[in-house]
C-alpha cells in the first residue's frame, strides 16, 4: 500500500525556465535528506515532477512505513521545493 503526496509549487517563470532551474538545482536536494541519500534527476519509480507554465507539481508515492510520515514529508517538500526554482547563476 502506498501513501501519495502531491504538492503544487506556483511560479512565474514559464515552463522552460522552471525546467532549467529544477534540472540545475535537483542535486541540492541531497543535503536535505538525512543519511546522505543520493538524488538523481533520472529517478524512475515513486516520484515525479511535472513542470507546467505556472506551477510545478511534485508527486511522491510513499510505500510501507514511510506512509506514516506522509504529513511531515509533505511539509518538507512544500518548504524546500521553491528552492529548486531559484536562479543560482548570479
Description:
The protein has 90 residues and is α+β, with helices and mostly antiparallel strands. It contains two helices and three strands. The protein has helices at residues 15-25, 70-80, and strands at 2-10, 47-51, 55-63. Strands 1-3-2 form a three-stranded antiparallel β-sheet. It is elongated. The mean pLDDT is 83.
Uncertain stretches of 5 or more adjacent residues: none
- Percent of sequence in beta strands: 25-35%
Number of helices: 2
One letter per element, helices H and strands E, the order comes to: EHEEH
Question: Total strand count, please?
Answer: 3
For the CA atoms, what is the radius of gyration?
13 Å
Global shape: elongated
Summary?
With 90 residues, the protein is an alpha+beta fold.
Notable features of this structure?
90 residues; 2 helices; elongated
Secondary structure layout:
Blueprint: E1 2-10, H1 15-25, E2 47-51, E3 55-63, H2 70-80
Antiparallel strand pairs: 1-3, 2-3
Amino acid at each position: 500500500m502506498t501513501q501519495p503526496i502531491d504538492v503544487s509549487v506556483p511560479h512565474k517563470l514559464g515552463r522552460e525556465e522552471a525546467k532549467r532551474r529544477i534540472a540545475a538545482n535537483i542535486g541540492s536536494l541531497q543535503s536535505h535528506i538525512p543519511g546522505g541519500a543520493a538524488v538523481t534527476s533520472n529517478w524512475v519509480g515513486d516520484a515525479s515532477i511535472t513542470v507546467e507554465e505556472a506551477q510545478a507539481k511534485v508527486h511522491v508515492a510513499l510505500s510501507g512505513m514511510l506512509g506514516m510520515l506522509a504529513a511531515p514529508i509533505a511539509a518538507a517538500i512544500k518548504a524546500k521545493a521553491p528552492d529548486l526554482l531559484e536562479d543560482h547563476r548570479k
